[in-house]
Here is the input.
Amino acid sequence: MKLFWSSIVLALSFSASAITPSPTQLEQFKKLPKAQQEALAKQYGISLDSLIPKQSPSSSLDKEREFSTPSEKMDNEGVTIDQNHGIVDTSELRDEISTEGDEKTLKLFGYDIFAGQSSGFEPLTNVPVPAEYVLGPGDEINVKMFGKEYQSVSVTIDRNGTFSLPETGPISVAGLSFSEFKDVFQQELSNKVIGLKATVTMGALRSMRIFVLGEVNRPGAYTVSSLSTMTHALFSAGGITGVGSLRNVELKRRGKLITKLDLYDMLLKGDTANDVNLLAGDVVFVPPTGKIVGVEGEVKRPALYEMKGGESVLDVLNLAGGELPTAYLKVSKLERINDVGAKTVLDMDLTSFSHKNTKIKNGDILRIKNVLNELQNVVRLEGHALRTGVFSWKEGQRALDIIGTVSELKTNPDLDYALIIREEPNIKTISALQFSLKEALNDPQTEKNPRLKPLDTVYIFSSEEKRNIDDVLSRLEKQARSSEPAKLVEVVGNVEYPGMYPLTKGMTIGSLIRASFDVKEYTDRDYALLKRVNFAKNKVEFEVISLKEPSSVAYNLQELDKLYVFNLNEPREKLIADLLGEIRNQTSKENEQSLVTINGQVRFPGTYPLSSNMSAADLVAAAGGYTESSYLVDFNVARFVTNGIDESTYDLQTIELNENTLETFSLEAKDSLFIKGIPEWQEAEVVELVGEFKFPGKYAIRKGESLAQLVERAGGFNNYAEIKASIFTREYLRVKEQRVLDEAHEKMKQQMVLGRYNAGQFSDGSAGSFQSILNTLEQAEAVGRMVVTSDQITNVKSSLELRDGDRLIVPRKTYEVSVLGQVYQPTTLPWISGQGIDDYIEGAGGVNQIAEEGDTYLIKANGRVVTGGWFESAKVEPGDSIMVPADISPIPTLTLWQAVTTILAQSATTIALIAAL
Here is the structure.
């Protein structure tokens, strides 16, 4: 490997012949570590820069240089433009072009042809030599002679320019073309040898030394093939820099100018006629670039172009490939620097002969604008139609002309609401027109089928989904001004599609409801609210609307109106919270808070806006009317009274309630009404009897009724009832127990999280038991069991008073004992007279590894828990349950555990008993 890289370095060290490694070799060398590169270069006594040349300031300008701020000196950012001398600061031009909105940047045309050519662009050596090829020292000539004898020889022209064969002797060929040499050779051969003929071809061609100087990336002397042309020389030198001219490449021979090469001819026309062959000692010289002009916009090749001088705008346009079909030549712009050094713009109509022939100056930028993207004299159809899109507009055209018939609409269209969005051509704002497809189809020749104007958009909607007009609403909102509010209205509440809608000409409350696809079921048609912004007073006002009254439905809407539609069976205060907030916020000394409150026996108590001439009856209607328990004899009113200076109080009144009172009692701001309830009114309380009753079921109870009295009403028990094992549950106890379980569960989770961060807390293997307890809590469900005795169930005098939601479960007689908790097989075992607690635990497989055996307790059939000193002497009876609790040592912070285990045990026994019924 070292030998391989050494060969590369040695090859590069022969700089006189300008031999370079292949691109692949050079890339491999670049991949070596920096230290290894430097060591190899130092070992062979060459500079590392010759292996990996640093980018010169000029070469960094080649291809994609961005324009930056102008500079007076040549640097990596660009080249300075001079109107008189032809040097251009491409950075300044680029800055002008990149600020034109689309942020496109231009590059110098043609320089990318040299991209990727890191080594010489060698001509092919296996192609026929042209007849005009000039022979010189080092060329090899192949001669095949036949006649008297056959022989094939190769002769190299010596340094004196002499070709020599024994048959012909020396022939001076220096300066002869290949075709001339063949004629001379045949003539000499025929003169000196009779009957011998020959064919002549070129063998290996000579190499020659030429010079590439000026604005090239690697100027210097190069050894090239004798077939090389000027372009080969340019490629060998790494191409032309960003400040070199592509249009004025010079070939000099012995101090004289031989020809000039315009690379644009080759790049734009494919013309290589002026790409002449080189001779030894030739100099290819690239001078600085000439005048530069930019072409940007709707042309085929936007770029910076070099000018020779005297070109017109049309010439520059042709250099850029001509205009694109989207170009609008009449509004082209020519930016240039005027005589006083300021930038200016000339309007150019490039369809005009005089403008096309305008002479170009150095630094000009020609901008070709595009045609407008907007279509003219068209209309559009959007939404729930089969054939949406753009249609040609015609005079007298109506909406149905582009919509067609009902069969051309998608399934379930909304035939009552369609929109036409109209763009005003002079001011570019939009407005909306609402119409009914049903009416248009019924009367297509009337104004119910609206006439269209250019650029109108017709929207058809589905009856099964929300209106998709967000872009229209956004545009209406953005075009609003302080003097011209947004033409939008809103409906919320109990309608099919609540939301914002465009305000159309003559729009009413009925029109807005049709736009939202009508109200839903159970709509309160007696009471709706309309919020309106009074722009003159800069305050919010509101009106009470009855959707039953035609006059209210025909009420005309204004900008930013908002309609509140209520459900008969849903609260209202949340829906109108924004309105209430705005009313409170606009309250001031001059503007009192226009709110009233109603509480008590109405369906939806709360705060409501005080509308004009609002009566107590209106407020009751706003609150959804009376409840079933309303006391319709009188009602209370609290009225706020103040002198506005230093006194305020509430005037409390009791008003007799009759047909006229509510209608005639006018409300004032801050009034508070209270509708009383019928004394002792209450909903029926229900208690359930489950199990071995003669007539089990759910019973409505009277206030103060006892458990024993209810059992009597249910006919008592049947012959299979086990009264001592009865289970009594109470709802409020269940809720209380569930809170305890939830609290324990949360604390358990917290303890587990802390344990994960507390090193060694679970090191004794208790993590498994901890997780087991947590799982038990997650699955637990409180039942709210309350221990009752047989006497409380059957004896009226000692019985307990019932409450709503109570439940008494009397099981069938059973001779079983349940073993629950931390045993290997929680189960139910047959009751055997004389067996104790330990016997039943052994029958369940014994306690497991997380059991706290010392805390085992007995739950009697009636739910009473036996523990402590009573435990050892406790007798196990049929229907009892034995609970083996878990070891809670891993949970030092869970002080609720004793209550939790009791709840869990009672829940488990109760649920098991219910499941067995």
Notes: Residues 423 and 429 are 6 Å apart (CA to CA).
